Amino acid sequence: MNKKINIQIPDGAKTIINILKNNGYEAYVVGGCVRDSLLTRDPHDWDITTNCLPEDMLRIFKATHKTIPTGLKHGTITLLDEGIPFEVTTFRLDGEYSDNRRPDNVVFTSSLKEDLSRRDFTINAIAYNGEVGLVDYFGGLQDLQNKLIRCVGEAEARFNEDALRMLRAIRFSAQLGFEMHKDINLALLKLSDNIKNISVERIREEFNKILFSNSDKVSELSSFGLLKHFIPEFEICENTVQNNPYHIFPVAKHILCSVKNVENQLVLKLTMFFHDIGKPQCLTTDNMGVDHFYNHGEKSVNIAEKVLKRMKYDNKTIEKVLLLIKYHDYELKHRKQIKRLLNNIGEENLRDLLKVKVADAKAQNPEFYPVRQLEIIKAEAEIDEIIRTKQCFTLKDLKLDGRDLMQLGITPGKQIGIVLNQLLELVLDDPELNNRKKLEEIVMGTGLLSIHK
Protein backbone atom coordinates (compact mmCIF):
# COMPACT_ATOMS: atom_id res chain seq x y z
CA MET A 1 0.00 0.00 0.00
CA ASN A 2 1.22 3.49 -0.79
CA LYS A 3 -0.97 6.38 0.34
CA LYS A 4 1.58 9.00 -0.71
CA ILE A 5 0.78 8.58 -4.39
CA ASN A 6 -2.26 10.54 -5.50
CA ILE A 7 -4.08 9.73 -8.73
CA GLN A 8 -6.72 12.09 -10.07
CA ILE A 9 -9.71 9.84 -10.64
CA PRO A 10 -12.48 11.30 -12.84
CA ASP A 11 -15.71 12.23 -11.05
CA GLY A 12 -17.70 9.46 -12.73
CA ALA A 13 -15.35 6.75 -11.45
CA LYS A 14 -15.24 8.37 -8.00
CA THR A 15 -19.03 8.30 -7.83
CA ILE A 16 -19.16 4.60 -8.69
CA ILE A 17 -16.44 3.73 -6.17
CA ASN A 18 -18.21 5.74 -3.43
CA ILE A 19 -21.60 4.14 -4.11
CA LEU A 20 -20.02 0.68 -3.85
CA LYS A 21 -18.21 1.70 -0.65
CA ASN A 22 -21.42 3.06 0.89
CA ASN A 23 -23.04 -0.29 0.18
CA GLY A 24 -20.27 -2.13 2.02
CA TYR A 25 -18.01 -3.12 -0.90
CA GLU A 26 -14.42 -2.49 -1.97
CA ALA A 27 -13.77 -0.82 -5.31
CA TYR A 28 -10.65 0.40 -7.10
CA VAL A 29 -9.61 1.77 -10.45
CA VAL A 30 -7.32 -0.82 -11.96
CA GLY A 31 -5.04 -1.74 -14.83
CA GLY A 32 -4.14 0.55 -17.70
CA CYS A 33 -5.65 3.70 -16.22
CA VAL A 34 -3.49 3.34 -13.10
CA ARG A 35 -0.40 2.53 -15.17
CA ASP A 36 -0.91 5.52 -17.45
CA SER A 37 -1.62 7.86 -14.53
CA LEU A 38 1.63 6.83 -12.85
CA LEU A 39 3.41 7.51 -16.15
CA THR A 40 1.64 10.92 -16.38
CA ARG A 41 -0.10 9.78 -19.56
CA ASP A 42 -3.80 10.44 -20.16
CA PRO A 43 -5.78 7.21 -19.65
CA HIS A 44 -8.25 6.30 -22.38
CA ASP A 45 -10.57 4.30 -20.13
CA TRP A 46 -11.12 3.96 -16.41
CA ASP A 47 -11.85 0.38 -15.40
CA ILE A 48 -13.05 -0.47 -11.91
CA THR A 49 -12.72 -3.71 -9.98
CA THR A 50 -14.83 -4.64 -6.94
CA ASN A 51 -15.82 -7.51 -4.67
CA CYS A 52 -19.49 -6.78 -5.45
CA LEU A 53 -21.17 -9.52 -7.48
CA PRO A 54 -22.63 -8.50 -10.86
CA GLU A 55 -26.26 -9.13 -9.91
CA ASP A 56 -25.80 -6.96 -6.82
CA MET A 57 -24.23 -4.22 -8.95
CA LEU A 58 -27.25 -4.23 -11.24
CA ARG A 59 -29.50 -3.78 -8.21
CA ILE A 60 -27.37 -1.10 -6.53
CA PHE A 61 -26.95 1.08 -9.62
CA LYS A 62 -30.46 0.64 -11.03
CA ALA A 63 -31.63 3.98 -9.58
CA THR A 64 -28.50 6.04 -10.34
CA HIS A 65 -26.95 4.83 -13.60
CA LYS A 66 -27.83 3.33 -16.94
CA THR A 67 -26.52 -0.21 -16.63
CA ILE A 68 -25.43 -2.46 -19.50
CA PRO A 69 -24.83 -6.17 -18.80
CA THR A 70 -21.67 -6.24 -20.92
CA GLY A 71 -20.39 -9.62 -19.76
CA LEU A 72 -22.29 -10.87 -16.74
CA LYS A 73 -20.84 -14.39 -16.82
CA HIS A 74 -17.37 -12.82 -16.56
CA GLY A 75 -18.52 -10.40 -13.89
CA THR A 76 -18.54 -7.23 -15.99
CA ILE A 77 -21.20 -4.55 -16.29
CA THR A 78 -20.89 -1.14 -17.93
CA LEU A 79 -22.19 1.92 -16.11
CA LEU A 80 -22.89 5.16 -17.93
CA ASP A 81 -22.17 8.31 -15.96
CA GLU A 82 -23.27 11.39 -17.92
CA GLY A 83 -22.81 9.34 -21.08
CA ILE A 84 -19.27 8.21 -20.19
CA PRO A 85 -18.90 4.41 -19.93
CA PHE A 86 -17.12 2.76 -17.00
CA GLU A 87 -16.55 -0.99 -16.95
CA VAL A 88 -16.94 -2.50 -13.49
CA THR A 89 -15.82 -6.09 -12.95
CA THR A 90 -16.09 -8.39 -9.95
CA PHE A 91 -12.83 -9.73 -8.46
CA ARG A 92 -12.32 -13.05 -10.18
CA LEU A 93 -10.02 -15.98 -10.86
CA ASP A 94 -9.77 -17.47 -14.32
CA GLY A 95 -10.19 -21.19 -14.96
CA GLU A 96 -8.19 -23.25 -17.41
CA TYR A 97 -7.30 -21.75 -20.81
CA SER A 98 -7.65 -24.86 -22.96
CA ASP A 99 -7.54 -22.92 -26.26
CA ASN A 100 -4.78 -20.37 -25.44
CA ARG A 101 -7.39 -17.64 -25.94
CA ARG A 102 -9.91 -17.33 -23.12
CA PRO A 103 -10.67 -18.98 -19.79
CA ASP A 104 -13.04 -21.93 -19.88
CA ASN A 105 -14.75 -20.43 -16.84
CA VAL A 106 -14.27 -17.77 -14.17
CA VAL A 107 -14.73 -17.96 -10.42
CA PHE A 108 -15.59 -14.86 -8.43
CA THR A 109 -13.43 -14.13 -5.40
CA SER A 110 -13.45 -11.70 -2.51
CA SER A 111 -9.67 -11.18 -2.74
CA LEU A 112 -8.23 -8.24 -4.64
CA LYS A 113 -4.81 -9.93 -4.59
CA GLU A 114 -6.19 -13.01 -6.28
CA ASP A 115 -7.84 -10.84 -8.91
CA LEU A 116 -4.62 -8.95 -9.63
CA SER A 117 -2.63 -12.20 -9.76
CA ARG A 118 -4.43 -13.34 -12.92
CA ARG A 119 -3.44 -10.25 -14.93
CA ASP A 120 -0.79 -10.25 -17.64
CA PHE A 121 1.96 -7.82 -16.64
CA THR A 122 2.94 -6.30 -13.32
CA ILE A 123 2.46 -2.77 -14.65
CA ASN A 124 -1.19 -3.68 -15.38
CA ALA A 125 -1.73 -5.36 -12.00
CA ILE A 126 -1.92 -2.21 -9.87
CA ALA A 127 -5.12 -0.93 -8.23
CA TYR A 128 -5.93 2.38 -6.57
CA ASN A 129 -8.57 4.29 -4.70
CA GLY A 130 -8.36 7.55 -2.84
CA GLU A 131 -8.81 6.02 0.61
CA VAL A 132 -6.47 3.02 0.45
CA GLY A 133 -3.96 4.43 -2.03
CA LEU A 134 -1.93 2.26 -4.39
CA VAL A 135 -2.28 -1.52 -4.13
CA ASP A 136 0.72 -3.16 -5.78
CA TYR A 137 1.34 -6.77 -4.75
CA PHE A 138 3.63 -7.69 -7.64
CA GLY A 139 6.11 -4.84 -7.98
CA GLY A 140 4.44 -3.03 -10.85
CA LEU A 141 5.44 0.43 -9.62
CA GLN A 142 9.10 -0.59 -9.43
CA ASP A 143 8.89 -2.09 -12.94
CA LEU A 144 7.44 1.19 -14.20
CA GLN A 145 10.35 3.02 -12.62
CA ASN A 146 12.82 0.52 -14.11
CA LYS A 147 11.07 0.65 -17.51
CA LEU A 148 10.56 -3.10 -17.53
CA ILE A 149 7.81 -5.31 -18.97
CA ARG A 150 7.50 -8.32 -16.63
CA CYS A 151 4.75 -10.90 -16.28
CA VAL A 152 2.77 -11.47 -13.11
CA GLY A 153 4.18 -14.82 -12.04
CA GLU A 154 5.71 -17.06 -14.71
CA ALA A 155 5.78 -15.73 -18.26
CA GLU A 156 5.13 -19.17 -19.75
CA ALA A 157 2.02 -19.60 -17.64
CA ARG A 158 0.65 -16.20 -18.62
CA PHE A 159 1.32 -16.80 -22.33
CA ASN A 160 -0.17 -20.28 -22.23
CA GLU A 161 -3.33 -18.78 -20.79
CA ASP A 162 -3.74 -16.22 -23.59
CA ALA A 163 -1.26 -16.33 -26.48
CA LEU A 164 -2.19 -12.76 -27.47
CA ARG A 165 -0.21 -11.64 -24.44
CA MET A 166 2.94 -12.37 -26.45
CA LEU A 167 2.01 -9.64 -28.91
CA ARG A 168 0.89 -7.40 -26.05
CA ALA A 169 4.32 -7.69 -24.43
CA ILE A 170 5.98 -6.42 -27.60
CA ARG A 171 3.29 -3.79 -28.06
CA PHE A 172 3.76 -2.38 -24.55
CA SER A 173 7.51 -2.40 -25.12
CA ALA A 174 6.91 -0.40 -28.31
CA GLN A 175 4.45 2.05 -26.75
CA LEU A 176 6.34 2.72 -23.54
CA GLY A 177 9.92 2.26 -24.69
CA PHE A 178 10.42 -0.41 -22.01
CA GLU A 179 12.65 -3.49 -22.12
CA MET A 180 11.09 -6.94 -21.83
CA HIS A 181 12.23 -9.17 -18.97
CA LYS A 182 14.47 -12.07 -20.01
CA ASP A 183 11.78 -14.56 -18.92
CA ILE A 184 9.42 -13.01 -21.47
CA ASN A 185 12.03 -13.33 -24.21
CA LEU A 186 12.55 -17.02 -23.42
CA ALA A 187 8.82 -17.69 -23.26
CA LEU A 188 8.24 -15.94 -26.59
CA LEU A 189 10.80 -18.16 -28.30
CA LYS A 190 9.27 -21.29 -26.77
CA LEU A 191 5.58 -20.54 -27.25
CA SER A 192 5.38 -18.35 -30.37
CA ASP A 193 3.57 -21.04 -32.38
CA ASN A 194 0.58 -20.69 -30.05
CA ILE A 195 -0.24 -17.36 -31.69
CA LYS A 196 -1.93 -19.37 -34.44
CA ASN A 197 -4.75 -20.05 -31.96
CA ILE A 198 -5.62 -16.36 -31.75
CA SER A 199 -8.20 -14.75 -34.01
CA VAL A 200 -6.82 -12.62 -36.80
CA GLU A 201 -8.90 -9.67 -35.60
CA ARG A 202 -7.16 -9.61 -32.19
CA ILE A 203 -3.75 -10.01 -33.83
CA ARG A 204 -4.53 -7.21 -36.28
CA GLU A 205 -5.33 -4.72 -33.51
CA GLU A 206 -2.05 -5.42 -31.69
CA PHE A 207 -0.12 -5.22 -34.97
CA ASN A 208 -1.68 -1.83 -35.72
CA LYS A 209 -0.65 -0.50 -32.31
CA ILE A 210 2.93 -1.69 -32.86
CA LEU A 211 3.07 0.10 -36.22
CA PHE A 212 1.78 3.27 -34.58
CA SER A 213 4.18 3.07 -31.64
CA ASN A 214 7.53 1.81 -32.93
CA SER A 215 7.76 -0.04 -36.23
CA ASP A 216 11.24 -1.33 -35.35
CA LYS A 217 9.49 -3.79 -33.05
CA VAL A 218 8.21 -5.65 -36.14
CA SER A 219 11.72 -7.11 -36.29
CA GLU A 220 11.10 -8.61 -32.85
CA LEU A 221 7.82 -10.08 -34.06
CA SER A 222 9.89 -11.82 -36.69
CA SER A 223 12.88 -12.85 -34.56
CA PHE A 224 10.63 -14.37 -31.88
CA GLY A 225 8.77 -16.40 -34.52
CA LEU A 226 5.44 -14.60 -34.29
CA LEU A 227 5.24 -12.70 -37.59
CA LYS A 228 5.50 -15.82 -39.74
CA HIS A 229 2.09 -16.90 -38.49
CA PHE A 230 0.23 -13.87 -39.85
CA ILE A 231 2.49 -12.03 -42.34
CA PRO A 232 5.04 -14.62 -43.55
CA GLU A 233 5.43 -12.59 -46.75
CA PHE A 234 7.55 -10.06 -44.86
CA GLU A 235 10.31 -12.39 -43.73
CA ILE A 236 11.99 -12.70 -47.14
CA CYS A 237 12.40 -8.91 -47.11
CA GLU A 238 14.81 -9.19 -44.18
CA ASN A 239 17.31 -11.11 -46.29
CA THR A 240 16.94 -9.01 -49.44
CA VAL A 241 19.74 -6.47 -49.79
CA GLN A 242 19.51 -3.54 -52.19
CA ASN A 243 22.76 -3.06 -54.08
CA ASN A 244 21.57 0.18 -55.57
CA PRO A 245 22.96 3.70 -55.13
CA TYR A 246 19.56 5.00 -54.02
CA HIS A 247 19.39 2.61 -51.06
CA ILE A 248 21.52 1.87 -48.02
CA PHE A 249 19.28 -0.65 -46.20
CA PRO A 250 17.96 -4.14 -46.91
CA VAL A 251 14.32 -4.11 -47.99
CA ALA A 252 12.92 -4.91 -44.52
CA LYS A 253 14.84 -2.15 -42.75
CA HIS A 254 13.95 0.35 -45.46
CA ILE A 255 10.27 -0.58 -45.03
CA LEU A 256 10.34 -0.21 -41.25
CA CYS A 257 12.19 3.12 -41.46
CA SER A 258 9.59 4.39 -43.89
CA VAL A 259 6.79 3.32 -41.54
CA LYS A 260 8.44 5.33 -38.77
CA ASN A 261 8.77 8.35 -41.07
CA VAL A 262 5.08 8.68 -41.94
CA GLU A 263 2.42 10.30 -39.76
CA ASN A 264 0.14 8.26 -37.51
CA GLN A 265 -2.72 7.43 -39.84
CA LEU A 266 -3.47 3.73 -40.20
CA VAL A 267 -3.76 3.89 -43.98
CA LEU A 268 -0.37 5.59 -44.28
CA LYS A 269 1.32 3.21 -41.83
CA LEU A 270 -0.01 0.20 -43.72
CA THR A 271 0.94 1.73 -47.06
CA MET A 272 4.54 2.11 -45.97
CA PHE A 273 4.64 -1.39 -44.49
CA PHE A 274 3.51 -2.95 -47.77
CA HIS A 275 4.82 -0.52 -50.39
CA ASP A 276 7.99 -2.53 -51.15
CA ILE A 277 6.99 -5.95 -49.85
CA GLY A 278 7.02 -7.30 -53.41
CA LYS A 279 10.64 -6.28 -54.09
CA PRO A 280 12.26 -9.66 -53.29
CA GLN A 281 10.20 -11.29 -56.04
CA CYS A 282 11.23 -8.64 -58.57
CA LEU A 283 14.97 -8.57 -57.91
CA THR A 284 17.27 -8.50 -60.92
CA THR A 285 20.97 -7.58 -61.04
CA ASP A 286 22.54 -5.94 -64.10
CA ASN A 287 26.04 -6.60 -65.44
CA MET A 288 27.39 -3.76 -63.28
CA GLY A 289 26.18 -5.49 -60.11
CA VAL A 290 23.38 -3.00 -59.53
CA ASP A 291 20.07 -4.39 -58.23
CA HIS A 292 16.76 -3.40 -59.82
CA PHE A 293 13.19 -4.13 -58.76
CA TYR A 294 11.12 -3.56 -61.90
CA ASN A 295 7.33 -3.64 -61.43
CA HIS A 296 7.69 -4.13 -57.68
CA GLY A 297 4.76 -1.76 -57.12
CA GLU A 298 2.37 -4.10 -58.91
CA LYS A 299 3.72 -7.12 -57.05
CA SER A 300 3.47 -5.24 -53.73
CA VAL A 301 -0.18 -4.38 -54.48
CA ASN A 302 -0.95 -8.06 -55.04
CA ILE A 303 0.74 -9.17 -51.84
CA ALA A 304 -0.79 -6.34 -49.79
CA GLU A 305 -4.28 -7.16 -51.02
CA LYS A 306 -3.84 -10.81 -50.06
CA VAL A 307 -2.53 -10.01 -46.57
CA LEU A 308 -4.96 -7.20 -45.78
CA LYS A 309 -7.93 -9.35 -46.74
CA ARG A 310 -6.55 -12.27 -44.75
CA MET A 311 -6.24 -10.01 -41.71
CA LYS A 312 -9.79 -8.71 -42.28
CA TYR A 313 -9.09 -5.02 -42.66
CA ASP A 314 -12.13 -3.08 -43.84
CA ASN A 315 -12.65 -2.60 -47.56
CA LYS A 316 -12.22 1.19 -47.45
CA THR A 317 -8.80 0.86 -45.81
CA ILE A 318 -7.71 -1.87 -48.22
CA GLU A 319 -8.81 0.14 -51.26
CA LYS A 320 -6.86 3.24 -50.26
CA VAL A 321 -3.71 1.36 -49.21
CA LEU A 322 -3.60 -0.46 -52.55
CA LEU A 323 -4.13 2.80 -54.42
CA LEU A 324 -1.24 4.53 -52.66
CA ILE A 325 1.07 1.54 -53.16
CA LYS A 326 0.22 1.44 -56.85
CA TYR A 327 1.30 5.04 -57.39
CA HIS A 328 4.08 5.35 -54.78
CA ASP A 329 6.79 5.41 -57.49
CA TYR A 330 4.80 7.52 -59.96
CA GLU A 331 6.78 10.57 -61.13
CA LEU A 332 5.41 14.01 -60.36
CA LYS A 333 7.90 16.19 -62.20
CA HIS A 334 5.55 17.82 -64.70
CA ARG A 335 2.18 19.54 -64.42
CA LYS A 336 0.61 17.14 -66.91
CA GLN A 337 1.65 14.14 -64.78
CA ILE A 338 0.17 15.79 -61.71
CA LYS A 339 -3.09 16.57 -63.49
CA ARG A 340 -3.38 13.00 -64.72
CA LEU A 341 -2.92 11.74 -61.19
CA LEU A 342 -5.42 14.28 -59.84
CA ASN A 343 -7.85 12.90 -62.39
CA ASN A 344 -7.07 9.28 -61.51
CA ILE A 345 -7.04 9.40 -57.72
CA GLY A 346 -8.32 12.82 -56.59
CA GLU A 347 -6.78 15.61 -54.54
CA GLU A 348 -7.02 14.00 -51.08
CA ASN A 349 -5.33 10.79 -52.21
CA LEU A 350 -2.66 12.73 -54.09
CA ARG A 351 -1.78 14.76 -51.01
CA ASP A 352 -1.51 11.54 -49.02
CA LEU A 353 0.69 10.15 -51.79
CA LEU A 354 3.09 13.05 -51.22
CA LYS A 355 3.34 11.99 -47.56
CA VAL A 356 4.14 8.46 -48.74
CA LYS A 357 6.83 9.77 -51.07
CA VAL A 358 8.44 11.82 -48.30
CA ALA A 359 8.51 8.84 -45.92
CA ASP A 360 9.91 6.61 -48.67
CA ALA A 361 12.63 9.09 -49.64
CA LYS A 362 13.73 9.62 -46.04
CA ALA A 363 14.31 5.86 -45.72
CA GLN A 364 16.58 5.74 -48.77
CA ASN A 365 20.14 6.97 -49.30
CA PRO A 366 20.29 10.37 -47.54
CA GLU A 367 22.67 11.63 -50.21
CA PHE A 368 19.76 11.85 -52.66
CA TYR A 369 17.12 13.11 -50.24
CA PRO A 370 17.57 16.87 -50.92
CA VAL A 371 16.80 16.33 -54.61
CA ARG A 372 13.79 14.12 -53.83
CA GLN A 373 12.56 16.60 -51.26
CA LEU A 374 12.75 19.47 -53.76
CA GLU A 375 10.77 17.45 -56.32
CA ILE A 376 8.05 16.78 -53.75
CA ILE A 377 7.93 20.44 -52.67
CA LYS A 378 7.58 21.52 -56.31
CA ALA A 379 4.85 18.91 -56.88
CA GLU A 380 2.92 20.18 -53.88
CA ALA A 381 3.21 23.75 -55.16
CA GLU A 382 1.90 22.62 -58.57
CA ILE A 383 -1.07 20.92 -56.91
CA ASP A 384 -1.84 24.07 -54.93
CA GLU A 385 -1.68 26.17 -58.12
CA ILE A 386 -3.87 23.77 -60.10
CA ILE A 387 -6.51 23.78 -57.38
CA ARG A 388 -6.27 27.53 -56.71
CA THR A 389 -6.69 28.48 -60.36
CA LYS A 390 -9.37 25.81 -60.94
CA GLN A 391 -7.50 24.22 -63.83
CA CYS A 392 -9.15 21.37 -65.69
CA PHE A 393 -8.15 17.85 -64.66
CA THR A 394 -11.49 16.00 -64.54
CA LEU A 395 -14.43 15.62 -66.91
CA LYS A 396 -16.55 17.92 -64.76
CA ASP A 397 -13.96 20.68 -65.33
CA LEU A 398 -14.43 20.56 -69.12
CA LYS A 399 -16.24 23.54 -70.64
CA LEU A 400 -18.23 21.08 -72.72
CA ASP A 401 -20.51 18.36 -71.33
CA GLY A 402 -22.59 15.46 -72.58
CA ARG A 403 -25.64 17.59 -73.41
CA ASP A 404 -23.46 19.85 -75.54
CA LEU A 405 -22.15 16.86 -77.47
CA MET A 406 -25.67 15.59 -78.13
CA GLN A 407 -26.59 19.01 -79.51
CA LEU A 408 -23.62 18.66 -81.84
CA GLY A 409 -25.08 15.42 -83.13
CA ILE A 410 -23.29 12.71 -81.15
CA THR A 411 -25.53 9.76 -80.33
CA PRO A 412 -26.35 9.37 -76.61
CA GLY A 413 -24.63 6.44 -74.89
CA LYS A 414 -21.07 5.29 -74.37
CA GLN A 415 -19.91 7.42 -77.33
CA ILE A 416 -20.45 10.53 -75.20
CA GLY A 417 -18.00 9.27 -72.59
CA ILE A 418 -15.42 8.31 -75.21
CA VAL A 419 -15.45 11.79 -76.78
CA LEU A 420 -15.34 13.56 -73.41
CA ASN A 421 -12.31 11.53 -72.35
CA GLN A 422 -10.58 12.29 -75.64
CA LEU A 423 -11.22 15.98 -75.10
CA LEU A 424 -9.90 15.77 -71.53
CA GLU A 425 -6.67 14.22 -72.81
CA LEU A 426 -6.22 17.13 -75.21
CA VAL A 427 -6.90 19.68 -72.46
CA LEU A 428 -4.43 18.00 -70.10
CA ASP A 429 -1.80 18.52 -72.81
CA ASP A 430 -2.90 22.08 -73.58
CA PRO A 431 -5.01 23.85 -70.91
CA GLU A 432 -5.76 26.72 -73.34
CA LEU A 433 -8.08 24.37 -75.23
CA ASN A 434 -10.57 24.26 -72.35
CA ASN A 435 -12.88 26.75 -74.01
CA ARG A 436 -16.37 25.88 -75.18
CA LYS A 437 -15.89 27.25 -78.69
CA LYS A 438 -12.49 25.62 -79.14
CA LEU A 439 -13.79 22.27 -77.89
CA GLU A 440 -16.75 22.45 -80.28
CA GLU A 441 -14.35 23.19 -83.13
CA ILE A 442 -12.25 20.17 -82.16
CA VAL A 443 -15.30 17.90 -82.13
CA MET A 444 -16.53 19.21 -85.51
CA GLY A 445 -13.17 19.56 -87.17
CA THR A 446 -11.26 16.40 -86.24
CA GLY A 447 -13.69 13.79 -87.39
CA LEU A 448 -14.91 12.98 -83.88
CA LEU A 449 -18.45 13.88 -84.87
CA SER A 450 -18.60 11.55 -87.86
CA ILE A 451 -16.89 8.74 -85.96
CA HIS A 452 -19.23 8.79 -83.01
CA LYS A 453 -22.59 9.59 -84.61
Task: Provide key terms for this protein.
453 residues; disordered C terminus; Hydrophobic Seed Protein; elongated; two-stranded antiparallel sheet; Beta Polymerase, domain 2; seven-stranded mixed beta sheet; 50% helix; alpha+beta; 13 strands; 22 helices
Describe it for me?
The chain has 453 residues and is an alpha+beta fold. It folds into 4 domains: 11-146, Beta Polymerase, domain 2 (2-Layer Sandwich); 153-230, Hydrophobic Seed Protein (Orthogonal Bundle); 245-391, no CATH class; 395-452. Helices cover 50% and strands 11% of the residues. It has 22 helices and 13 strands. The protein has helices spanning 11-22, 32-38, 54-61, 112-117, 140-146, 155-161, 164-176, 182-191, 200-213, 218-223, 235-238, 251-261, 266-274, 296-310, 315-326, 335-345, 347-362, 369-388, 402-407, 414-429, 436-445, 448-452, and strands at residues 27-30, 47-50, 66-71, 76-81, 84-90, 92-94, 106-108, 127-129, 133-135, 148-149, 179-180, 283-285, 291-293. A 7-stranded mixed beta sheet has the order 3-4-5-2-1-8-9. A two-stranded antiparallel sheet has the order 6-7.
Counting DSSP H or I runs of 4 or more residues, the number of helices is 22
Radius of gyration: 29 Å
User: Which sequence of strands runs across the widest sheet?
Assistant: 3-4-5-2-1-8-9
**Structurally, how many domains make up the residues?**
4
The global form is elongated
How many beta-strand elements? Answer: 13
Beta content: 5-15%
> What is the percent of helical residues?
40-55%
Unreliable stretches: 449-453
Give the terminus-to-terminus CA distance.
Answer: 88 Å
Mean pLDDT: 92
